[in-house]
């Protein structure tokens, strides 16, 4: 490749719903775009993505295939499967380095790198994650409706999630997995609503072919159930934005303004990477919105420099 072929208006890091919708909008705006993705999104543990109008129930992989098909109509958008490991430069002239020892040049950067789950510390949870243990009732509550569920929640989130999940099933218990005791008024409220709370640490999750059968506590209690909701701890999807100087919150969320601009000029972020909403359609929508602000910036800069 010569340098011209490696020169892009926008390099998008991450090819999930946010990065792909941004690529679509920028392609339609005739921008020369490279999407670099290493195909390790959080949701690939699951078989179906729900709640995305016209795509309800497709697998995360299928979703990306449909997106690639749409974007194919815009030949200024290219894709590569690789990992971005480093970036430097400044607004108008960024250098993007990858694990495969490639270098690309970009005028603007969009980080759509999502988030990552921290390792799951409960024995047996990884076997059921995405099959019968989920993280979000809006994503998978319908599939688990009226089933006997165990909600594995920190004491802080327990009451909130108890109220929420009651819209999908009345048959559930809370496990705080050894987390600090709930305040007494919350315990009373839960008890008034007939919600049993177990505070002992979890020993393991028993399952068969990905389907949870029971949660076993360290005190020997066995809670039978057919589904679980739990709260994974999340971290930033990539360290590269921090390396470039982007401000990031303690929970790994890249700080952006309403246009998706980060604290570094010329660098944008969208989707789960820059929000805590965690819905595919929301990520796609933020990708679209941010692509518009990137394109506006490019067009206005070109106008100002007389290169329109
Ligand atoms: C188990 C589970 C089930 C879910 N179910 C649903 C559901 O049913 N409905 C719903 O609306 N939402 C669901 N979600 C949430 C949804 O998956 C996310 O909100 C959405 O995927 C976020 O899109 P994104 O583009 O921001 O990030 P992602 O989809 O996470 O994509 C980020 C991409 O960036 C890549 N990447 C990261 N760093 C680099 C790097 N340095 N170089 C190259 N590539 C990189 C990653 O590999 C990944 O492919 C679910 C999530 C989970 C965990």
Short description:
This protein is of the alpha/beta class.
- The CATH top-level class label of the largest domain: Alpha Beta
Which word captures the global form? elongated
- Percent of residues in β-strands: 25-35%
What ligand species are in this complex?
Answer: flavin-adenine dinucleotide
Let me know the average pLDDT: 95
Number of domains as seen in the coordinates: 2
Tell me what the structure shows.
With 308 residues, the chain is of the alpha/beta class. Helices cover 26% and strands 27% of the residues. The protein folds into two domains: 7-117 and 233-304, FAD/NAD(P)-binding domain (3-Layer(bba) Sandwich); 125-230, FAD/NAD(P)-binding domain. It has helices at 17-28, 60-71, 125-128, 137-140, 155-165, 184-192, 240-243, 280-304; strands at residues 7-13, 33-37, 77-81, 84-90, 93-98, 103-111, 115-117, 133-134, 149-152, 172-175, 196-198, 202-208, 211-217, 222-224, 227-230, 234-236, 267-269. α1 links the parallel β1 and β2. α1 (17-28) packs parallel to α2 (60-71). It is elongated and about 70 Å long. Flavin-adenine dinucleotide (FAD) binds next to α1, β2, α4 and α8.
SSE topology sketch:
Elements (H helix, E strand, L loop, with lengths): L6 E7 L3 H12 L4 E5 L22 H12 L5 E5 L2 E7 L2 E6 L4 E9 L3 E3 L7 H4 L4 E2 L2 H4 L8 E4 L2 H11 L6 E4 L8 H9 L3 E3 L3 E7 L2 E7 L4 E3 L2 E4 L3 E3 L3 H4 L23 E3 L10 H25 L4
Parallel strand pairs: 1-2, 1-6, 2-3, 6-17, 8-15, 9-10, 9-15, 10-11
Antiparallel strand pairs: 4-5, 5-6, 7-16, 12-13, 13-14
Helix pairs in contact: 1-2, 1-8
Bound molecules: flavin-adenine dinucleotide.
The site of flavin-adenine dinucleotide has 42 residues, from helix 1, strand 2, helix 4 and helix 8.
